[in-house]
Amino acid sequence: MGRSFFSPGTGDTGTAPFDPARDAGHTDPPPRKGFFTDTSVCIGCKACEVACKEWNAVPEDGIALTGMSYDNTGGLGGSTWRHVAFIEQQLPAPAPDGGRPDTVDLGMPTATLPGADPEHREHADFRWLMESDVCKHCTHAACLDVCPTGALFRTEFGTVVVQDDICNGCGYCVPACPYGVIDRRDGPAGDPAVGLAQKCTLCYDRLSDGMEPACAKACPTQSIQFGDLDELRERAQGRLDMLVESGETTAQLYGHDPDNGVGGTGAFFLLLDEPEVYGLPPDPVVTTKDLPGMWRQAAFAAAALLGGAAAAFIGGKGGRR
Amino acid sequence: MVPDAEFTSYYGRPVVKASPWEADIPAYLFLGGLAGGSSLLAAGADLTGLPRQRRSARLVASAAIGGSLYALVHDLGRPARFHHMLRVAKVTSPMSVGTWILSAYGPFNALATGSELLGFMPGPVRNSRLGRLLGFAGRPGGLIAALIAPAVASYTAVLLTDTATPTWHAAQRELPFVFVGSAAAASGGMGLVAGPLGESGPARNLAVGGAVLELGASRIMQHSMGITAEPLRQGTAGTLHTAATALTAAGAAGAVAGRRSRIASALSGLALTAGSACTRFAIFHAGQASARDPRYTVVPQRERREGRSS
């Protein structure tokens, strides 16, 4: 839990990096595990979505077309623990200083009617961004902080998991998550988790047996990489440097920084554009960071009410005054 | 005029999730405030010798807290597991803190109401050992409930502000004051409705003071919230918010002007109570709307990030 946000826990002493598993009371935990999702090599195959559903027995959540893009899942939710975003981007022409490398014409269909405008085929001012999104497993996790039943807990791997047999479905974690990840599962009828908060467990059961999560296992391009968080952060930095050097100047890492608003995330991303383009918040902060101030304001307000009520009686029994 | 902020999103889809809560939760916020304020009114009436005001306020408090507990449990995805809230006590979870506040408040409030209900019982019940014990426990029970009552009325603001819902989170400084003002207006208003005119002075003071606090704090709040105040002026939330302001202002004015008339007092009290309910529903719906529109998540966060890097 996030108590360390207010007073440093055992894992926060000296210069050692903050270890959420140790802070949660795990003695001698294994190295913190996480995901590095390199969106630059994602091909949008959605194998991760399927593998996640199959392994975790997550039900389908509506087979409907969104009509907005090839992404018909829409976003993370109670029955979508991995979600591949498809962004169809019309880019301005390359800058004269070569801000973006010359793209290769793959002969993909254009947005115009076939044959209507043959010139358009020459333009390569269109790109697809794909990003496999997932629970971030925050270092300071708002969902875990606000859960009133203790159904959410911190595993020895530093990840955050919901216990189905404890959650009472109060739904408080849903608006608390700054990434909009967790949600209450609303169907289908008969599913044991209906009415309960549900999200990615980072395949806790597989990790416990020394295996990698199903999504990472199924990813054919190594866009989803699983491993020790420290090592992943190094690897991500190397990949970013390589991309920037080759001219992909808008590439950036997202969520990796231990000094960000949630203390760094266990699942972080290499993005090719701004976070909000992918539906990610640009500067998320764990809400409980402000909680001491909120309690203070509530205490002042309570005192005002008590004082006000007392004042209402001053001047005797009142009556028709 | 400030130019529109640069804003991109993923096909306009929300970034944060709106809470899965429905009408139960704003009803719970309103009834909790009504109960808290009524307990204070009852305790004051008890101490200053206004027996009929005390009785009606205690009954209102119990009915309200009963209703709010029902709404709270009814809203759970698995209501049968409501008692799981009592497994842990967490200061980082306003809902956990609130559960314990209500658990402390409820029994003392019940003692006070129980002693009041004794008056309706036949003599043998009143004079039984249990009856006399209950009669004796009424005052201490009511006083202890009144000491916890301000927390019942104010913690619900933290329940909303400790979320990533943009409009709720941005209201963190002023919302507790809006809520306790609203609680005082509602409970004072019900005091005017249910209590006799001859004992209505303190209820009137509480109602008018609460209304002034609610309206004033709400104004300051909207000013400090930036663009996340917009949802309070649009759609369902906007309608409710306008109604809340009008009912509260009219109720307060009527409570002062109509203090010699039983009917005017009762109508003013009803307006104040309805205004308080509208305030809770307006804040609730504004938050839900702010979560559904990615603009309210992205624009303030980008401004914060850019303010830091420059």
UniProtKB/TrEMBL annotation, chain A:
Keyword flag Acyltransferase: no
Annotated cofactor note: Binds 4 [4Fe-4S] clusters per subunit.
Sorted UniProt keywords: 4Fe-4S, Iron, Iron-sulfur, Membrane, Metal-binding, Repeat, Transmembrane, Transmembrane helix
GO molecular function, one term: metal ion binding
Chief place where the protein resides: other
Transmembrane parts of this sequence: 294-315
Compositional bias per record (Basic and acidic residues), positions renumbered to this chain: 20-31
Chain sites annotated for binding [4Fe-4S] cluster 1: C42, C45, C48, C219
Protein's name according to its UniProt entry: 4Fe-4S dicluster domain-containing protein
PROSITE patterns: 4FE4S_FER_1, 4FE4S_FER_2
Annotated [4Fe-4S] cluster 2 binding sites: C52, C200, C203, C215
Cofactor(s) the record lists: [4Fe-4S] cluster
Any one cellular-component term (Gene Ontology): cell envelope
Matching InterPro entries: 4Fe4S_Fe-S-bd, 4Fe4S_Fe_S_CS, FDH_Electron_Transfer_Unit, Formate_DH_Fe-S_su
Location in the cell: Cell envelope
Automatic annotation (TrEMBL), chain B:
Chief subcellular location: membrane
Leader sequence segment: none
Topology versus the membrane: Multi-pass membrane protein
Gene3D superfamilies documented for this protein: Formate dehydrogenase/DMSO reductase domain
GO cellular component, one term: plasma membrane
Subcellular location: Cell membrane
InterPro entries: Electron_transfer_protein, NrfD-like
Keywords: Cell membrane, Membrane, Transmembrane, Transmembrane helix
Membrane spanning residue stretches: 25-47, 59-77, 97-121, 133-155, 175-194
Family membership noted in the UniProt record: Belongs to the NrfD family.
Record protein name field: Polysulfide reductase
